[in-house]
Amino acid sequence: MSRALTAALALLASAATAPPTPGGTVVRPGESLAQLAARTLGSEGAGPELLAFNHLEGAPAAGTQVQVPGPERARAVAAIGSARSAIGQSPPGSARTEAEARLAEAESLLARARYAEAAAQADGAWKLLAEARGERSHFAVAVEPDGRTRVAVREGVPVRVEAQGRARAVRAGETLTVVRGESPGTPQLDAGPAEPPILISPEPGLKLALEPAPGGLGPVRFAWKPVPDATGYVLELAGPRKQTLRTTQPVVTVPGLPAGKYRWTVRAVQGDGTLGPPATRAVQLVPGRIKLEVKETPWQ
Predict the structure, then answer these.
(1) Do 78 and 115 contact (CB within 8 A), yes or no?
(2) Under DSSP, is residue 4 helix (H, G, I), strand (E, B) or coil?
(3) What values do phi and psi take at 292, rounded to 5?
(4) What tens digit of pLDDT does each residue of 62-109 get?
(5) Structure pTM?
(6) Distance of alpha carbon 126 from alpha carbon 284, whole angstroms
(7) DSSP string of 92-142?
(8) Residue 79: which H helix or E strand, with range?
(9) Residue 69: is the preceding peptide bond cis (ω within 30°)?
Protein backbone atom coordinates (compact mmCIF):
# COMPACT_ATOMS: atom_id res chain seq x y z
CA MET A 1 0.00 0.00 0.00
CA SER A 2 1.48 3.36 -0.99
CA ARG A 3 2.22 6.17 1.44
CA ALA A 4 -0.20 8.39 -0.47
CA LEU A 5 -3.08 5.97 0.06
CA THR A 6 -2.22 5.58 3.75
CA ALA A 7 -1.98 9.32 4.27
CA ALA A 8 -5.25 9.88 2.47
CA LEU A 9 -7.17 7.54 4.75
CA ALA A 10 -5.45 8.94 7.84
CA LEU A 11 -6.72 12.37 6.92
CA LEU A 12 -10.20 11.01 6.27
CA ALA A 13 -10.28 9.29 9.64
CA SER A 14 -9.11 12.46 11.34
CA ALA A 15 -12.50 13.95 10.55
CA ALA A 16 -13.90 11.68 13.27
CA THR A 17 -11.59 13.07 15.94
CA ALA A 18 -12.53 16.74 15.72
CA PRO A 19 -15.62 17.45 13.62
CA PRO A 20 -17.27 20.85 13.69
CA THR A 21 -20.24 21.07 15.99
CA PRO A 22 -23.42 21.41 13.91
CA GLY A 23 -26.04 23.95 14.91
CA GLY A 24 -25.78 27.61 15.77
CA THR A 25 -23.67 29.97 17.83
CA VAL A 26 -23.89 33.61 18.90
CA VAL A 27 -21.25 36.19 17.95
CA ARG A 28 -19.46 37.34 21.10
CA PRO A 29 -18.87 41.02 21.96
CA GLY A 30 -15.73 42.30 20.24
CA GLU A 31 -15.31 39.07 18.26
CA SER A 32 -13.95 39.62 14.76
CA LEU A 33 -14.91 37.54 11.75
CA ALA A 34 -11.51 35.81 11.82
CA GLN A 35 -11.95 34.96 15.51
CA LEU A 36 -15.48 33.68 14.89
CA ALA A 37 -14.25 31.51 12.03
CA ALA A 38 -11.41 30.14 14.17
CA ARG A 39 -13.85 29.29 16.97
CA THR A 40 -16.48 27.64 14.79
CA LEU A 41 -14.54 26.25 11.81
CA GLY A 42 -11.03 25.96 13.22
CA SER A 43 -9.43 28.45 10.82
CA GLU A 44 -9.19 32.24 10.86
CA GLY A 45 -9.15 32.23 7.07
CA ALA A 46 -12.55 30.53 6.87
CA GLY A 47 -14.45 33.78 7.46
CA PRO A 48 -15.70 34.13 3.85
CA GLU A 49 -16.89 30.52 3.97
CA LEU A 50 -18.87 31.16 7.15
CA LEU A 51 -20.46 34.21 5.55
CA ALA A 52 -21.38 32.19 2.46
CA PHE A 53 -22.90 29.42 4.57
CA ASN A 54 -25.08 31.97 6.38
CA HIS A 55 -25.82 34.03 3.25
CA LEU A 56 -24.27 37.14 4.82
CA GLU A 57 -22.49 39.93 2.94
CA GLY A 58 -20.50 41.30 5.87
CA ALA A 59 -19.20 40.41 9.32
CA PRO A 60 -22.11 39.79 11.73
CA ALA A 61 -22.52 42.06 14.74
CA ALA A 62 -22.22 40.90 18.34
CA GLY A 63 -25.26 38.95 19.45
CA THR A 64 -26.05 37.70 15.95
CA GLN A 65 -27.03 34.04 15.68
CA VAL A 66 -25.01 32.26 12.98
CA GLN A 67 -25.29 28.70 11.75
CA VAL A 68 -22.32 26.32 11.74
CA PRO A 69 -22.02 23.58 9.09
CA GLY A 70 -22.21 19.95 10.18
CA PRO A 71 -20.68 16.70 8.91
CA GLU A 72 -21.00 17.67 5.26
CA ARG A 73 -18.16 20.16 5.81
CA ALA A 74 -16.03 17.60 7.63
CA ARG A 75 -16.42 15.27 4.66
CA ALA A 76 -15.34 18.00 2.22
CA VAL A 77 -12.36 19.07 4.36
CA ALA A 78 -11.22 15.45 4.71
CA ALA A 79 -11.50 14.86 0.96
CA ILE A 80 -9.51 18.01 0.21
CA GLY A 81 -6.85 16.99 2.71
CA SER A 82 -6.46 13.54 1.18
CA ALA A 83 -6.23 15.01 -2.32
CA ARG A 84 -3.60 17.53 -1.21
CA SER A 85 -1.55 14.76 0.41
CA ALA A 86 -1.75 12.57 -2.69
CA ILE A 87 -0.68 15.45 -4.94
CA GLY A 88 2.29 16.18 -2.69
CA GLN A 89 3.56 12.61 -3.13
CA SER A 90 2.90 12.33 -6.88
CA PRO A 91 5.52 12.89 -9.60
CA PRO A 92 5.11 15.72 -12.13
CA GLY A 93 2.93 14.88 -15.10
CA SER A 94 -0.43 15.42 -16.74
CA ALA A 95 -2.29 13.50 -14.01
CA ARG A 96 -0.82 15.69 -11.29
CA THR A 97 -1.55 18.87 -13.25
CA GLU A 98 -5.20 17.89 -13.70
CA ALA A 99 -5.45 16.83 -10.05
CA GLU A 100 -4.06 20.21 -8.94
CA ALA A 101 -6.70 21.96 -11.04
CA ARG A 102 -9.45 19.86 -9.46
CA LEU A 103 -8.07 20.53 -5.99
CA ALA A 104 -8.06 24.28 -6.66
CA GLU A 105 -11.70 24.06 -7.73
CA ALA A 106 -12.54 22.02 -4.62
CA GLU A 107 -10.94 24.66 -2.38
CA SER A 108 -12.88 27.39 -4.18
CA LEU A 109 -16.14 25.48 -3.69
CA LEU A 110 -15.32 24.97 0.00
CA ALA A 111 -14.82 28.72 0.44
CA ARG A 112 -18.31 29.20 -1.01
CA ALA A 113 -19.79 26.59 1.38
CA ARG A 114 -20.69 24.24 -1.49
CA TYR A 115 -19.58 21.19 0.42
CA ALA A 116 -20.97 18.32 -1.66
CA GLU A 117 -19.44 19.74 -4.84
CA ALA A 118 -16.12 20.40 -3.08
CA ALA A 119 -15.95 16.80 -1.85
CA ALA A 120 -16.75 15.47 -5.32
CA GLN A 121 -13.98 17.54 -6.94
CA ALA A 122 -11.44 16.51 -4.30
CA ASP A 123 -12.44 12.85 -4.60
CA GLY A 124 -11.97 13.15 -8.35
CA ALA A 125 -8.45 14.52 -7.88
CA TRP A 126 -7.51 11.71 -5.51
CA LYS A 127 -9.01 9.05 -7.78
CA LEU A 128 -7.19 10.45 -10.80
CA LEU A 129 -3.81 10.07 -9.09
CA ALA A 130 -4.68 6.62 -7.74
CA GLU A 131 -5.55 5.42 -11.25
CA ALA A 132 -2.34 6.94 -12.62
CA ARG A 133 -0.39 4.87 -10.05
CA GLY A 134 -2.34 1.75 -10.97
CA GLU A 135 -3.97 1.60 -7.53
CA ARG A 136 -7.68 1.02 -7.96
CA SER A 137 -9.75 0.97 -4.82
CA HIS A 138 -13.38 2.03 -4.65
CA PHE A 139 -14.22 3.15 -1.14
CA ALA A 140 -16.55 5.65 0.48
CA VAL A 141 -16.38 7.69 3.67
CA ALA A 142 -19.42 8.95 5.59
CA VAL A 143 -19.17 11.31 8.59
CA GLU A 144 -22.12 11.01 10.99
CA PRO A 145 -23.54 13.93 13.04
CA ASP A 146 -22.23 12.34 16.26
CA GLY A 147 -18.66 12.39 14.93
CA ARG A 148 -18.38 8.77 13.83
CA THR A 149 -16.64 8.11 10.53
CA ARG A 150 -17.55 5.05 8.48
CA VAL A 151 -15.14 3.77 5.83
CA ALA A 152 -16.49 1.15 3.40
CA VAL A 153 -14.31 -0.51 0.76
CA ARG A 154 -16.25 -1.98 -2.15
CA GLU A 155 -13.46 -3.31 -4.35
CA GLY A 156 -9.77 -3.04 -5.12
CA VAL A 157 -6.69 -2.84 -2.91
CA PRO A 158 -7.06 -2.55 0.90
CA VAL A 159 -7.06 0.90 2.44
CA ARG A 160 -5.46 1.84 5.74
CA VAL A 161 -7.31 3.89 8.36
CA GLU A 162 -5.36 5.59 11.16
CA ALA A 163 -6.79 7.21 14.30
CA GLN A 164 -5.45 7.82 17.81
CA GLY A 165 -2.07 6.36 16.87
CA ARG A 166 -3.46 3.01 15.67
CA ALA A 167 -4.09 1.74 12.16
CA ARG A 168 -6.36 -0.85 10.60
CA ALA A 169 -6.46 -2.25 7.08
CA VAL A 170 -9.92 -2.35 5.53
CA ARG A 171 -10.29 -4.83 2.68
CA ALA A 172 -12.82 -5.06 -0.13
CA GLY A 173 -16.23 -5.97 1.25
CA GLU A 174 -15.49 -4.59 4.74
CA THR A 175 -16.67 -1.54 6.68
CA LEU A 176 -14.85 0.16 9.55
CA THR A 177 -16.48 2.65 11.93
CA VAL A 178 -14.23 5.02 13.88
CA VAL A 179 -15.72 6.67 16.97
CA ARG A 180 -14.51 10.16 17.83
CA GLY A 181 -11.55 10.03 20.21
CA GLU A 182 -11.18 6.24 19.99
CA SER A 183 -8.86 3.89 18.13
CA PRO A 184 -10.28 2.04 15.12
CA GLY A 185 -11.84 -1.31 15.96
CA THR A 186 -12.16 -4.44 13.85
CA PRO A 187 -13.54 -4.08 10.30
CA GLN A 188 -16.88 -5.79 9.75
CA LEU A 189 -17.97 -7.67 6.67
CA ASP A 190 -20.34 -5.58 4.63
CA ALA A 191 -22.59 -7.50 2.31
CA GLY A 192 -23.80 -4.32 0.60
CA PRO A 193 -26.39 -4.46 -2.16
CA ALA A 194 -26.78 -7.93 -3.67
CA GLU A 195 -26.78 -6.62 -7.24
CA PRO A 196 -25.51 -3.54 -9.08
CA PRO A 197 -27.99 -1.21 -10.82
CA ILE A 198 -29.68 -2.66 -13.91
CA LEU A 199 -28.79 -0.38 -16.81
CA ILE A 200 -31.47 0.47 -19.37
CA SER A 201 -30.12 2.92 -21.92
CA PRO A 202 -28.05 3.46 -23.95
CA GLU A 203 -28.02 -0.22 -24.90
CA PRO A 204 -24.74 -2.21 -24.72
CA GLY A 205 -22.28 -1.41 -27.49
CA LEU A 206 -24.71 0.98 -29.17
CA LYS A 207 -23.46 3.46 -31.76
CA LEU A 208 -25.62 6.46 -30.93
CA ALA A 209 -26.15 9.03 -33.71
CA LEU A 210 -26.82 12.49 -32.27
CA GLU A 211 -27.25 16.01 -33.52
CA PRO A 212 -24.74 18.79 -32.75
CA ALA A 213 -25.31 20.37 -29.33
CA PRO A 214 -23.44 22.69 -26.95
CA GLY A 215 -20.40 20.72 -25.80
CA GLY A 216 -20.47 18.24 -28.70
CA LEU A 217 -23.36 15.91 -29.52
CA GLY A 218 -26.57 15.47 -27.60
CA PRO A 219 -28.57 15.30 -25.60
CA VAL A 220 -27.45 11.94 -24.16
CA ARG A 221 -29.84 10.18 -21.78
CA PHE A 222 -28.50 7.59 -19.31
CA ALA A 223 -31.12 5.50 -17.49
CA TRP A 224 -31.24 2.50 -15.14
CA LYS A 225 -33.72 0.77 -12.86
CA PRO A 226 -34.12 2.14 -9.30
CA VAL A 227 -32.18 0.34 -6.56
CA PRO A 228 -34.18 -0.39 -3.38
CA ASP A 229 -33.21 1.78 -0.39
CA ALA A 230 -30.78 3.86 -2.47
CA THR A 231 -30.60 7.55 -1.54
CA GLY A 232 -28.98 8.55 -4.82
CA TYR A 233 -26.70 7.47 -7.64
CA VAL A 234 -23.25 8.30 -9.02
CA LEU A 235 -22.73 8.24 -12.79
CA GLU A 236 -19.12 8.17 -14.03
CA LEU A 237 -18.26 8.85 -17.67
CA ALA A 238 -14.89 7.74 -19.07
CA GLY A 239 -13.96 8.70 -22.60
CA PRO A 240 -13.23 11.88 -24.54
CA ARG A 241 -14.72 13.73 -21.57
CA LYS A 242 -14.35 12.39 -18.03
CA GLN A 243 -17.20 13.42 -15.79
CA THR A 244 -18.81 12.36 -12.50
CA LEU A 245 -22.45 13.23 -11.91
CA ARG A 246 -24.62 12.73 -8.82
CA THR A 247 -28.40 12.42 -8.91
CA THR A 248 -31.32 11.28 -6.77
CA GLN A 249 -33.18 9.88 -9.79
CA PRO A 250 -32.37 6.78 -11.91
CA VAL A 251 -31.82 8.91 -15.00
CA VAL A 252 -29.37 11.62 -16.10
CA THR A 253 -29.53 13.68 -19.28
CA VAL A 254 -26.26 15.27 -20.40
CA PRO A 255 -26.84 18.22 -22.78
CA GLY A 256 -23.78 17.51 -24.91
CA LEU A 257 -20.67 15.31 -25.07
CA PRO A 258 -17.76 15.17 -27.54
CA ALA A 259 -18.00 12.38 -30.11
CA GLY A 260 -16.20 9.14 -29.33
CA LYS A 261 -16.32 5.94 -27.31
CA TYR A 262 -17.45 6.13 -23.68
CA ARG A 263 -17.68 3.78 -20.73
CA TRP A 264 -20.43 4.74 -18.31
CA THR A 265 -20.67 3.34 -14.80
CA VAL A 266 -23.49 3.68 -12.28
CA ARG A 267 -23.34 3.04 -8.52
CA ALA A 268 -26.12 3.39 -5.97
CA VAL A 269 -25.54 5.54 -2.89
CA GLN A 270 -26.63 3.80 0.31
CA GLY A 271 -28.19 5.45 3.35
CA ASP A 272 -24.81 5.69 5.10
CA GLY A 273 -23.22 7.39 2.11
CA THR A 274 -21.30 4.35 0.87
CA LEU A 275 -21.38 3.24 -2.77
CA GLY A 276 -22.76 -0.05 -4.01
CA PRO A 277 -21.26 -2.32 -6.70
CA PRO A 278 -20.86 -0.85 -10.19
CA ALA A 279 -22.71 -1.54 -13.42
CA THR A 280 -20.83 -0.58 -16.59
CA ARG A 281 -21.61 -0.31 -20.29
CA ALA A 282 -19.93 1.01 -23.43
CA VAL A 283 -21.47 3.42 -25.92
CA GLN A 284 -20.16 5.30 -28.95
CA LEU A 285 -21.42 8.76 -29.86
CA VAL A 286 -21.31 9.68 -33.56
CA PRO A 287 -22.62 12.70 -35.49
CA GLY A 288 -26.11 12.21 -36.89
CA ARG A 289 -27.05 13.04 -40.44
CA ILE A 290 -27.94 16.66 -41.10
CA LYS A 291 -31.31 16.92 -42.82
CA LEU A 292 -31.22 19.19 -45.86
CA GLU A 293 -34.31 20.48 -47.63
CA VAL A 294 -33.74 21.58 -51.22
CA LYS A 295 -36.38 23.63 -53.03
CA GLU A 296 -36.51 24.91 -56.57
CA THR A 297 -35.92 28.63 -56.82
CA PRO A 298 -36.90 30.56 -59.96
CA TRP A 299 -33.93 32.37 -61.48
CA GLN A 300 -34.38 35.78 -62.98
Answers:
(1) no
(2) helix
(3) -115, 135
(4) 999 999 998 888 888 888 888 888 888 788 888 889 999 999 999 999
(5) 0.45
(6) 27
(7) SSHHHHHHHHHHHHHHHHHHTT-HHHHHHHHHHHHHHHHHHTT--EEEEEE
(8) helix 71-88
(9) no
